Amino acid sequence: MKAGLAAAAATALAAPVVAVLAVLGAAGTALACFTAPGPALAAGAPVPAPARVWIAAVQNACPQLPQPWIAAVMAADSGFDPAHAGPRGRGLIAVTDADWVAVHGAGWNADLDGDGLPDDSDPLTVADVAGQMLCQLLDDLDQPLGTPLSGARRLSWLDTLALAHHSGPGVVATYPRIDDSAKTYLEGVHADAVAWTSTTPTATAAGSATGAPSQVAPSALVDAACASSLADTGTVVVPPGTPTDVAGAVAAALNLVGARSGWYNRCDRLACRAYGYANSGYESASVHWTRMLATGHARPGDRCPPLGAFVYWATGSPAGHVALVVQADPGCDPARIKVVTNDALDHATGFTGGVYLVTLAQIETGFMSRSGYRGWSDPVCAGALQVGAA
């Protein structure tokens, strides 16, 4: 993935995210199927094509942030260069060494995804860490969303976040008495965010350069046809009567990514919810797996799960764990197989029961043990249908 992104960055022209990842081919990710919550980044904004994917990754990590603002901060911090290093930090969006370790759980040169390359060489990892860092900073500012600062002049919530990111949270209280560097940065980010916002109306607004975000993180829309195109290997058998098909389940799961709470210890429910069920109908993921074994729906030990499959682990708890595959890989590379799961990054984000998009390699680094992997099964659920499901 890292080599593919680097090669594409040198030649690609500005284009929508889906088109970018079609060019990247095997380097593609489930982010290809996201239609970002509004306001959208204008098609004519001077943002390189690969950077649009990285911006989507930042928003995936912090859904409150609108893409035009992310793009403006990324341009100001790094000029869209993933390898940028400066006095304020490193990466696409400046991250200090301390913040990187706090969010990522290891140093810049670590290889947590197990692909043989340092994590800081992967722009998507760099973008994900930056998004989590900005979300935490937003929380730390402890300012009710939409409440501007008092004083001779007022800052929007996004301008407040930009100033805190550039100069530190302590400087926010001194506004408008800020140094020239902070003033230039703030004015530049604000101007670019406004200029790069699409004028096409969108159904859901995540925020604007002057407005406030919804208290509830907006859901991305996911193109079902695009999602189904991610099926590179194998197939699952979806039982008759299941409310949705594989493409619909992948779309539904991706729409839940970014939730900050509500899914603690509810992995089995999360997997079946994607297929239109209110719950799984089983007492736990372990019970679910046992039933799949007994009915011939399980593939024990198979580490090449197809799109839409449920993947299972034994854990220190009798309940076990299950996740839903939203990107398969014909080479069975755990760094390319992606799953939607709950709880996995709560330790880094501070969420309780959050929903995340991670690779198989990532989920088995600290959250699940590779040795505990049980296998995958067809998406068989026995619970009640979700309200509104067919």
- Any idea what the radius of gyration is? 21 Å
Order of helices and strands: HHEHHEEHHHHHEHHHHEEEEHEHE
Mean pLDDT: 79
Q: Which term fits the overall shape?
A: elongated
Main sheet characteristics: 6 strands, antiparallel
Strand content: 5-15%
Low-confidence stretches: 1-30, 144-152, 202-220
Counting DSSP E segments of at least 2 residues, the number of strands comes to 10
Distance between the termini: 38 Å
Which range best describes the helical content: under 10%, 10-25%, 25-40%, 40-55%, 55-70% or over 70%? 25-40%
Structural class: alpha+beta
- Reading side by side through the largest sheet, how are the strands ordered? 5-10-6-7-8-9
Q: What is the number of helices?
A: 15
Concise synopsis of the structure shown:
This protein is α+β, with helices and mostly antiparallel strands and about 400 residues long. Helix content is about 35%, strand content about 10%.
Written account of the structure:
There is one protein chain. The chain is α+β, with helices and mostly antiparallel strands and 390 residues long. 37% of the residues lie in helices and 9% in strands. It contains 15 helices and 10 strands. It has helices at residues 2-11, 17-24, 49-61, 67-78, 97-104, 123-141, 157-167, 169-172, 180-195, 224-228, 246-256, 267-273, 285-295, 346-349, 360-363; strands at residues 34-35, 85-86, 89-90, 221-222, 298-300, 310-313, 321-327, 338-342, 355-359, 373-377. The strands form 3 sheets. It has a 6-stranded antiparallel β-sheet. Strands 1-4 form a two-stranded antiparallel ribbon. A hairpin with a 2-residue loop joins strand 2 (85-86) and strand 3. It is elongated and about 70 Å long. The chain starts with a helix and ends in a 13-residue tail after the last strand.
